[in-house]
Amino acid sequence: MSEENAAQPLLGIDSDGKMEMTVDPVIHHMVAKIKFDKSVVDQLNKEIDEVSILNSDSHQSKLVGQFRQDERSAQLQMDLTTSVGQQFKTVLNSAGTSYLNNGYKKKSYADCYTVWSNHCYGGDYNPLHEHSTPTYAGLSGFMWLKLPDEMLERQLNRGQHKVNFNTTEGQYDGWNHIIWGLGSKSDLYRLKMPAEEYVQPEIGTMWIFPKWLHHQVMPFYGSGERRSLGMNWNVIESQGEMEKMMTPTEYSSFVERIPDDWDRNEVYPIDMGGITIHVKLDDD
What we know:
The protein contains 6 helices and 12 strands. By secondary structure, it is α+β, with helices and mostly antiparallel strands. The strands form 2 sheets. Strands 1, 2, 3, 5, 8, 10, 11 and 12 form an 8-stranded mixed sheet that branches.
């Protein structure tokens, strides 16, 4: 190639605006992470110690946790009707609704209807699972309240290490494992995004995520308690969200089917291709 030809602008691109490029992320799901002050953690632990442990029935028959290694191993329902329970439910509803509004840009509402405490001791674990909710869409979450000394002593600086299981130090004992797809390490070289994450528990931190996100808790060993909360939210769609998701014809049909005497304070169920969507109707 001659110097004259090499100097010719490729395809005539010799000025601004002749070629533009954008890189758009395609996001699989959203996760909210909320950090609570120690005073909040202390109040929740006090409520569990003085109310849940003394009065709550076991919740284990409804959950998958394998908590049996200690006489204190348990999964206990948290009472959301006490003063602390009511306040916490208000906080959870606000957080879940904000997650939907800001993460998914949905005009929807989150209603937390169940919270339970997980009391894990050496050898206890939670196998891989997902959650279910009465509503078709739903949110789940967990929050760490206590960690045994063995885990605290091995805490790593977040973001400054790589997960490495090629040691026998037990560094990741008691960590949460989040999975949203199948793959292998070689997939990273094929430009496939990671489909799993190992999460180091941090006291006072809460995660909120879609209910279908698979997760598990790795076993750990030691004498202390690993205490966490689990929770589920129903997702209630607004009428405006239904209008956004439906075609004009579908939305008109939806509105026409609403009974004239329906109590607008009640959630309205609508069948959509074999699934039931729960809707908060606009006030007349």
